[in-house]
Amino acid sequence: MTVETVGVVGAGQMGNGIAHVMALAGYEVLLNDVNEAALGTAIETITRNLDRQVSREKIRTADRDAALGRITTTLTLADLGQTDLVIEAATENEAVKQDIFAALLPHLKPETILTSNTSSISITRLASRTDRPERFMGFHFMNPVPVMQLVELIRGIATDQPTYATCLGVVQRLGKTAAPAEDFPAFIVNRILMPMINEAVYTLYEGVGSVKSIDEAMKLGANHPMGPLELADFIGLDTCLAIMNVLHDGLADTKYRPCPLLTKYVEAGWLGRKTGRGFYDYRGDEPVPTR
Ligand code: NAD
Q: How confident is the model at residue 145, as a pLDDT?
């Protein structure tokens, strides 16, 4: 199977990054969102990020112009039906994703591969509601997409080998590296990363360390580029909590119990960088620990 055209559903922080890297690699991209403003913002973000790559001499001006020329935005989901590969990157809500696939199905070419960028929802369950579970898989980019090297390729129980091989070819054409994963809660990266972040929150909750000492300990003692609490703020504390709940529910093991302090921050609406406050307060010139 060859892929030349890619449909991206959802033009938020992940969708715009996916459209960016796909267009730069030469794919024709159709970018869809229900929100017209999100499509405008996505094109602005992609342009700004491509400009940054030009100024850092990572790409040429002609590459930027060609990439922008390959991206078309649309409010009509059915337009994506004729693409070779669809990557769904809409809001992390299973009902939203099911509705998108259901609405897309009547318009799809028989050979189109369907994928989801979900961080935690079961690929097998999403696939089972479509007419092509064998041509359905998880295509999980990391944030920020243009910078991060890894893509997890998640096989549902029914995913066939040609589908996997085709998606692997796309990852390679992007110049990225694929980690194959089976479809169990949170896959590989978040299965390992989130319990570590949750443990850092327990370490704070139990008073073993402060925000500053925990982050400094892991940066200098484990050679991590960011401390776990700083990273949690970057990811979004609501996202961290949602993934811990998926692990806790899906694997039914108390070792995945979300820390009550993480829940409390989410209940307060202190979700990290995106709301201006999380384990750090970002509203001043410098981030200030909140505990
Ligand atoms: P986001 O909130 O930035 O963007 C989601 C976009 O989806 C919004 O623009 C919204 O308008 C759009 N949308 C909602 N319903 C839609 C519909 N029916 N049709 C079309 N568009 C619709 O979210 P995000 O951070 O970009 O996350 C998107 C997906 O990527 C989620 O599944 C998330 O789990 C996954 N993901 C996120 C990260 C991360 O760090 N943020 C990392 C890897 C994977």
A: 97
- Residues serving a catalytic function are 119, 140, 152, 190
Question: How many CB atoms within 10 Å of residue 201?
Answer: 26
Which residues of the chain have a pLDDT value below 70?
none
Write down the architecture of domain 5-182 according to CATH: 3-Layer(aba) Sandwich (3.40)
CATH topology of domain 190-289: N-(1-d-carboxylethyl)-l-norvaline Dehydrogenase; domain 2 (1.10.1040)
Which residue among 16, 33, 271 is best mutated to probe the pocket of ligand 1, counting the most ligand atoms within 8 A of its Cβ? 33
**Amino acid 55: pLDDT:** 98
What pLDDT score was predicted for residue 122?
A: 94
Residues 169 and 36: their CA atoms lie apart, in Å, by 32
What secondary structure letter does DSSP report for 247?
H
For the chain, residues classed under CATH 3.40.50.720 are 5-182
176: three-class secondary structure by DSSP: coil
Beta carbons within 10 angstroms of residue 217's beta carbon: 17
Q: CA 236, CA 232: separation in Å to the nearest integer?
A: 6
Q: Whose CA is nearest to atom 8 of ligand 1?
A: 12
pLDDT of amino acid 147: 95
Q: For the chain, where do the domains classified as CATH 1.10.1040.10 start and end?
A: 190-289
pLDDT in the model for residue 172: 98
Q: Which of 8, 13, 125, 197 to mutate to test the pocket of ligand 1 (most atoms within 8 A of CB)?
A: 13
Task: Give SS3 for 90.
Answer: coil
At residue 93, the pLDDT reads 87
In which residue are the tokens 């295509």 written? 139
> Which residues partner with 266 through β-bridges?
none
- The pLDDT score that the predictor gives to residue 282 is 98
Pocket of ligand 1 (CB under 6 A): 9-15, 32-35, 38, 89-92, 96, 100, 117-119, 140-141, 143, 235
